[in-house]
C-alpha cells in the first residue's frame, strides 16, 4: 500500500493543467525572454531538473546569508553584515529562480513529460522558496529579528495558501495583474539590488522624508513610516486585494457548478489554525521579550515553520491533482502545538515550561522541531514522487517513460507540442500561463 490510494492514483489520468496569467509584465516583457531562454536547454534535461536547479540557487543565497550572519542580527542590531556585493548575487539568483521556474513547464511540453508530477514538484519548490525569500528579504530590508519579519512570513504564506486554495476549488491557477510569482519576485529582486547599492540602513529612513513629501504642510501630520515598514503595509494591502480576488473567483466557479460558495470559506480555517500555535509560541514569555524572535533560534524556527507550511500546501496540491478531499488537518502541526502549549503553561496553569525551561532547552527543542519537520516533509516528497512515477511510468529527473513492457524509453513530445500545439491540435498559450509541467 503506497502513500497515495489506488483511487486517487487513478484520478491522475484525469488531470489537466489550466492556468490564467493576466500580468502585463509577464505577457509583454518576460514571456519573450522565457521563450528564448527555453531554446538554450537541450531536450535531454528533465523539467523537474530545471526547477530543482532554480531552488538550489535560492539555497545558495540562503547559505551565503548564514555564512556572514548566522545569528540574523542585521545592521540594526549590531551585525557587521555581509559585503554589499552579496545582495547583487541574491538579486541575480532570485531572477534566475523565477526564470527557471517559468520555463520548466515549457520544457515539459518540449520533452513530452507534462503531467501532475510537474505540478506537484513545481509547487513544492515554490513553497520552500516562499519562506527562504522572506528570510532574505527581511534581512535586506534591515528588519531582522522583529515581529515585522513574522508578519511578512504570515502574509506571504497566506498569499500562497490562497492561490492554492483557489486552484483547488476552481481547477485553475489564476495569476492576476499583480502576482507574487511575477511582479512580487521582480520587486524583491529590486530590493536586493537597491540594498546592494545603498545598504540595509537605507530602508530605515521615513518614506515622507525619502520622497520629500514631508515638506508639504498637510502631509506633515502623517506618520513618517520607515520604507521597510511602508513596504510591509503595501504587502498587507496586496494581501487584502488577493483575498477578495480569490474569493470572487471561487464564488464564480461555485455558482457555475451549482455548489455552495460559503463552504470553501471554511477551508481557509486550516491556515488560521496552523498559524496560531506559531504565534502563541513566539509570544513566550511575552511579545516584547520573545525567547525565539530575539535570539539566534529565530531562523531555525522560521525554517521549521516553512517546512510545515510546505507540507500543508503540498497535500493541498496533491488533493487537487488527484481530485481528493481537501486536507483540513496535518499531523506536522503537533510539533508547534507542543511547543506553544509548553511555552504558555504559565498562562494556562501557572506552571513553568516543562521542555523550554531554559534558553538552552528552548534552542534544542526548536532545532529538534526543524529536524523532524525536515524529515516529515522529505518523506512526503519521496513517497509522492515514488507513487506517481511508478503509477504513470515516468521518471522524475530524467526524460524517460516506461513502455508497455515496463522498459524505460526516452520520452517524446506530442505532435506539434514544440510549436505550441497539443497532439489534438488545441493551442497552448506558451507565453502566458506560468506552470504547465
UniProtKB/TrEMBL annotation:
<keyword id="KW-0472">Membrane</keyword>
<feature type="transmembrane region" description="Helical">
    <location>
        <begin position="173"/>
        <end position="194"/>
    </location>
</feature>
<dbReference type="GO" id="GO:0008654">
    <property type="term" value="P:phospholipid biosynthetic process"/>
</dbReference>
<keyword id="KW-0808">Transferase</keyword>
<dbReference type="InterPro" id="IPR043130">
    <property type="entry name" value="CDP-OH_PTrfase_TM_dom"/>
</dbReference>
<dbReference type="InterPro" id="IPR014472">
    <property type="entry name" value="CHOPT"/>
</dbReference>
<keyword id="KW-1133">Transmembrane helix</keyword>
<dbReference type="InterPro" id="IPR000462">
    <property type="entry name" value="CDP-OH_P_trans"/>
</dbReference>
<keyword id="KW-0812">Transmembrane</keyword>
<dbReference type="Pfam" id="PF01066">
    <property type="entry name" value="CDP-OH_P_transf"/>
</dbReference>
<feature type="transmembrane region" description="Helical">
    <location>
        <begin position="293"/>
        <end position="310"/>
    </location>
</feature>
<feature type="transmembrane region" description="Helical">
    <location>
        <begin position="229"/>
        <end position="250"/>
    </location>
</feature>
<dbReference type="InterPro" id="IPR048254">
    <property type="entry name" value="CDP_ALCOHOL_P_TRANSF_CS"/>
</dbReference>
<dbReference type="GO" id="GO:0016780">
    <property type="term" value="F:phosphotransferase activity, for other substituted phosphate groups"/>
</dbReference>
<protein>
    <recommendedName>
        <fullName>Choline/ethanolaminephosphotransferase</fullName>
    </recommendedName>
</protein>
<feature type="transmembrane region" description="Helical">
    <location>
        <begin position="50"/>
        <end position="68"/>
    </location>
</feature>
<feature type="transmembrane region" description="Helical">
    <location>
        <begin position="262"/>
        <end position="281"/>
    </location>
</feature>
<feature type="transmembrane region" description="Helical">
    <location>
        <begin position="364"/>
        <end position="385"/>
    </location>
</feature>
<dbReference type="GO" id="GO:0016020">
    <property type="term" value="C:membrane"/>
</dbReference>
<comment type="similarity">
    <text>Belongs to the CDP-alcohol phosphatidyltransferase class-I family.</text>
</comment>
Amino acid at each position: 500500500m503506497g502513500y497515495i490510494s489506488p483511487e486517487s492514483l487513478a484520478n491522475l489520468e484525469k488531470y489537466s493543467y489550466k492556468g490564467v496569467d493576466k500580468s502585463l509584465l509577464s505577457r509583454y516583457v518576460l514571456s519573450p525572454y522565457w521563450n528564448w531562454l527555453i531554446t538554450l536547454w537541450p531536450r535531454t534535461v528533465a523539467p523537474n531538473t530545471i526547477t530543482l536547479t532554480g531552488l538550489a540557487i535560492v539555497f545558495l543565497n540562503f547559505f551565503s546569508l548564514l555564512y556572514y550572519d548566522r545569528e540574523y542580527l542585521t545592521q540594526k542590531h549590531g551585525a557587521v553584515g555581509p559585503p554589499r556585493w552579496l545582495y547583487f548575487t541574491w538579486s541575480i539568483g532570485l531572477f534566475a529562480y523565477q526564470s527557471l521556474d517559468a520555463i520548466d513547464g515549457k520544457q515539459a511540453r518540449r520533452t513530452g513529460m507534462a503531467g501532475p508530477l510537474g505540478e506537484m514538484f513545481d509547487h513544492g519548490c515554490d513553497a520552500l522558496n516562499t519562506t527562504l525569500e522572506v528570510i532574505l528579504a527581511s534581512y535586506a530590508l534591515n528588519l531582522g529579528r522583529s515581529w515585522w519579519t513574522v508578519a511578512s512570513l504570515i502574509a506571504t504564506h497566506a498569499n500562497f495558501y490562497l492561490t492554492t486554495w483557489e486552484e483547488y476549488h476552481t481547477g485553475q491557477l489564476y495569476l492576476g495583474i499583480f502576482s507574487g510569482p511575477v511582479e512580487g519576485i521582480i520587486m524583491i529582486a529590486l530590493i536586493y539590488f537597491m540594498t546592494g547599492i545603498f545598504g540595509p540602513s537605507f530602508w530605515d529612513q521615513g518614506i515622507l522624508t525619502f520622497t520629500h513629501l514631508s515638506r508639504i504642510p498637510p502631509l506633515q501630520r502623517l506618520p513618517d513610516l520607515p520604507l521597510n515598514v511602508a513596504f510591509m503595509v503595501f504587502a498587507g494591502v496586496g494581501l487584502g486585494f488577493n483575498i477578495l480576488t480569490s474569493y470572487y473567483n471561487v464564488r464564480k466557479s461555485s455558482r457555475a457548478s451549482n455548489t455552495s460558495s460559503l463552504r470553501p470559506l471554511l477551508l481557509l480555517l486550516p491556515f488560521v489554525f496552523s498559524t496560531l500555535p506559531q504565534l502563541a509560541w513566539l509570544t513566550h514569555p511575552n511579545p516584547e521579550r520573545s525567547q525565539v524572535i530575539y535570539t539566534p533560534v529565530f531562523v531555525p524556527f522560521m525554517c521549521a515553520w516553512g517546512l510545515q507550511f510546505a507540507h500543508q500546501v503540498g497535500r493541498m496540491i496533491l488533493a487537487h491533482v488527484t481530485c481528493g478531499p481537501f486536507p483540513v488537518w496535518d499531523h506536522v502541526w503537533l510539533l508547534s502545538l507542543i511547543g506553544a502549549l509548553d511555552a504558555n503553561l504559565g498562562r494556562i496553569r501557572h506552571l513553568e515550561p516543562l521542555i523550554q525551561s531554559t534558553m538552552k532547552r528552548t534552542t534544542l527543542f526548536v532545532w529538534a522541531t526543524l529536524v523532524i519537520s525536515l524529515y516529515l516533509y522529505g518523506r512526503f516528497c519521496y513517497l509522492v514522487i515514488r507513487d506517481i512515477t511508478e503509477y504513470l511510468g515516468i521518471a522524475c529527473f530524467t526524460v524517460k517513460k516506461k513502455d508497455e513492457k515496463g522498459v524505460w524509453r526516452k520520452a517524446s513530445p506530442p505532435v506539434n507540442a514544440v510549436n505550441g500545439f497539443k497532439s489534438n491540435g488545441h493551442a497552448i498559450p506558451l507565453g502566458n500561463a506560468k506552470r504547465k509541467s
